[in-house]
Task: structure prediction
Amino acid sequence: SASTFGDGRRRCELGPTRKAILPEKFQGNPMKAAVLRRYGDNRMINVADVSLPPVSDTELLVEVRSASVNPLDVKTRDGKVRILLKYHLPLVLGNDLAGVVRQVGKQVRRFKVGDEIYARLDKSRIGSFAEFVAVRESDAALRPKNTTFEEAASLPLVALTAWQALVEIGKLQAGQRVLVHAGSGGVGTVAIQIARYLGAEVFTTVGHRNFDLAKRLGADTLIDYRTERFEDVAKNCDVVLDSAGGDTLVRSFQCVKPGGVVVSIGDTPSAAFARQWGLNSLLVFIIGWMSRKVSAAARASKARYEYLFMRPDGDQLERIAGLVERGIIKPQIDKVFALEQVREALSYSESGRATGKVVVKVS
Result:
């Protein structure tokens, strides 16, 4: 059972084996979090004192040690995902994390107080740029044993994206060909390693300064996107993973063979995705019109087009943790910022200069 503090935060009153263990400074006190007050630029974000989040019977209260910055955080800040994600402002930003379990709900069975976990938060309840966050039990997995909290936090969103794109949708197999765009980015660095693990032949677009990194990760053919047209090099691919959208997405259909698939995490959803997401018929029509060039390119190449908005999945994170512990996937971190530097972290991430992930160290 639980009661509340005067400000509405939940006070844990669980049995001895499930008792909440909160650091003394948080007992009855607020926490710090990066709060978005209005959609716009980084000036709309402030690190402020807020109440600890309530925790349901199926959730964990996690003390966040590190969280990672993703393009989705920038899009959320800018208001570009308001059609898909109906958030109420003010909003605590941040989508994935690594930390320590400090409280478990009555129905939680897989985790206990003191466990070190990593997770991608449910899209309806984000907020990992904070000292504490509520995490659904089904979205979490134990942190890979051979990682730091910073390394573990860099993985959930990008690793799940790469896994769902290549394994679930692409059904990539040994001997097949895959083109991974932006091979030095957060998703790209993990996707190359997963594709190598699956035994595929890997093409990737990457800046020349990151050729050595992409080769180390397992790419077979490196394409300098500044000097080469990727569609002239990557031919007859079974799967293409696009992260840019726009013209890059349309041109990617010249790389995929008939019956193959182009999976995009860029900015061009499909009408089919809009219908599955439950958007109204007018928005489905508008999105279909906006993606007409992509749909035409897919028809011309006799290939499938799939737009991916990845979902949290603790079971998949558990499998990914096993690959990390075996050395098959190695986290790639560019820079680590303090929570008080969250504006700088977002700016650096959206600058396009980062190789691998940008991480916010919370505690």
Remarks:
- The domain at 157-307 is CATH 3.40.50.720 (Rossmann fold).
